[in-house]
Design goal:
Layout lengths: L2 E5 L3 H13 L3 E5 L2 H10 L6 E5 L7 H10 L6 E5 L4 H10 L3 E4 L4 H24 L4 E4 L2 E4 L4 E4 L2 E4 L2 H12 L4 E3 H8 L9 H14 L9 E4 L3 E4 L3
Parallel strand pairs: 1-2, 1-3, 3-4, 4-5
Antiparallel strand pairs: 6-7, 7-8, 8-9, 10-12, 11-12
């Protein structure tokens, strides 16, 4: 049974989601604020399988909670609820570590479908890698384990989010080719090509910190000015 944590301060909405998700067979907990959710997320074993996280919360907002969790090494998939579907909110959510977003108001069936999709996406990603014998890739002195969502360098291990891993895998699969920002938006994240591309640049900056010995002078994740990026393994 998959476990879901709902972080939502509107009681009627949180109660409705809990009731309906339980009917779908999920184990469900509810937190009314980020401050209440944080210890649940940190202490629970086994960890939750999905977080449904509202952006507009009293005190700490959803963006801040997602950023804190990612910075501390907690990589449970996050479905972020936004008050509106504007590109700035979507991009900020992705930059904070969200794996998907859903603007309010939404249909319950859509939310359930998104939760199921996040779980399948994680499982399919790992199964596809295993099937194609491509779960482990060496880049310079770094080793990327896509099945474990980890990047290892000596004794250090960096945990990757699903979105980071999918972007890195896409670039590696297209090694030597110029990959446009619009292709990344559409083929990796499923967004329209006219969406603001700043989130991609921020993801690349983060991946360079993980992958490059000198992030300011990258050897693997190269920028093709005005177009996009190119991955070079050696």
């Amino acid at each position: 049974m998959s476990a879901v944590l709902i972080v939502e301060d509107e009681k009627h909405l949180a109660d409705g989601l809990r009731y309906n998700l339980k009917l779908e067979g999920y184990e469900v907990d509810v937190a009314n604020s980020a401050e209440e959710a944080y210890p649940l997320l940190v202490d629970r074993q086994p960890p939750y399988d999905v977080i449904v996280l509202d952006v507009m919360l009293p005190g700490m907002d959803g963006f801040s909670l997602a950023s804190q969790l990612r910075s501390e090494g907690h990589f449970v998939p996050i479905l972020m609820l936004t008050a509106r579907g504007q590109a700035e909110d979507v991009l900020r959510g992705f930059e904070s570590g969200a794996d998907d977003y859903l603007p309010k108001p939404f249909d319950l069936s859509v939310l359930i479908a998104r939760i199921n999709a996040l779980l399948r996406r994680r499982d399919w990603f790992r199964k596809d890698l295993t099937r194609n014998n491509g779960s482990v890739v060496d880049v310079g002195n770094k080793r990327i384990d896509f099945e474990a969502l980890e990047l290892r360098s000596g004794e250090q291990t960096v945990q990757l989010t699903l979105m980071e891993a999918e972007l890195l895998r896409y670039l590696i699969d297209h090694e030597g080719k110029i990959v446009s920002r619009s292709a990344i938006l559409e083929e990796v994240w499923g967004l329209r090509e006219d969406t603001d591309t700043r989130a991609i640049d921020n993801f690349i900056v983060r991946l360079r910190k993980y992958l490059e010995d000198e992030p300011s002078r990258p050897r693997h994740l190269l920028t093709v000015r005005g177009v996009g990026y190119r991955f070079v393994s050696q």
